Structure formats: structure tokens, C-alpha cells
Amino acid sequence: MIDKNVIKTIVEEWLQGNEYFLVDVCMEPDNRIVVEIDHADGVWIEDCAELSRHLQEKLGDELGDYELEVGSAGIGQPFKVAQQYAIHVGKEVEVLTAEGKKVHGVLKSVDGRDFTVTVKEKQRQEGKKRPVMADVDMAFSMDSVKYTKYLLSFK
Fold it and tell me: Long-range contacts for 108-117 (Cβ within 8 Å, ≥24 apart)?
């Protein structure tokens, strides 16, 4: 039986000196090992193939009956690690709060496990009859939201 931590160690070894980062390693019940990586400029299939070969070389016969799958984290999928937040600063995201409210806005900043999203909200301004749209910063913790994901825009 292959240990998840052994796979993580081998992947981290391959990641040294390159700008990719590990998002997740999943050991599926159907004997599949799924390794997800990401990069600020996207993931190249050639690099996934190279990482797959590296894993096969290091694991050798231990792979046995396992099916190995190496790929990108997937655009539009919820973020799993802090680096995914960092590479999406300045881009539109959707946050599902712990209370179940969806918030759409621009990811403004990331600080450790905390992040800020700038949203458009109607606000009353003194001297105006109608509310006007204004930018409002909302602070969140990665640990207290159900998910955050990049919003694809086809504008």
C-alpha cells in the first residue's frame, strides 16, 4: 500500500526549483492516485507528464495496481491551498460563506490564511436621494468559508 505522504514527498522533490505548487494528493477508493498541481500561468500537459514519469520512476513496482493521474487543479474549482488565492489576486472570485451566502467580487489581497474581496454594494450617501454603488472590502478567513473559486468571465 502506497502512503499519501510518500507521494507528497516525491512530488515536492520534483517541484523544487520550479514555479509549480502542490494543490492536493487524493487516494481514491478505486486504486487511483490523483495528484493536482497549479501554476500562476497555468499548467502545461508536458509538465504533468514529466511529473507522472518522475512518480512512476520513484515508486517503481509499488505502483502495482494503482492508476496514476497527474493534472491541474481545474479552473473554476474551489481553491484548496493559499497559493491559489495568491495567484488570483486582482481577479473575480465567488465566495460561499459559512452561512451559505454567495459573495462575488475582486480578490484584493491575501495575508496568511486571511483574504479580502472587494464587492459592489448599494450604499446611501449623505445628500443623495438614492443609494449609489460603492466598492466595499469584505474580509474572510480561508478556514471559515465553504469555498472560494475563480469566476470565469466571457466578457
Answer: 108/137, 110/82, 110/85, 110/86, 112/82, 113/82, 113/141, 113/142, 113/143, 114/139, 114/140, 114/141, 114/142, 115/85, 115/139, 115/140, 115/141, 115/142, 115/148, 116/140, 117/93
Q: How many CA atoms lie within 13 A of 146 on its CB side?
A: 10
Q: What is the DSSP string of 51-100?
A: HHHHHHHHHGGGGTTPEEEEEE--TTSBP-SHHHHHHTTTSEEEEEETTS
How many of the other CB atoms lie within 10 Å of CB of 25? 17
Distance CA 138, CA 106 (A): 10
92-147 per-position pLDDT tens digit: 999 999 999 999 999 999 999 999 999 999 888 887 788 888 899 999 999 999 99
With a CB cutoff of 8 Å and minimum separation 6, the contacts of 105 are 92, 93, 95, 117, 118, 119, 120, 138
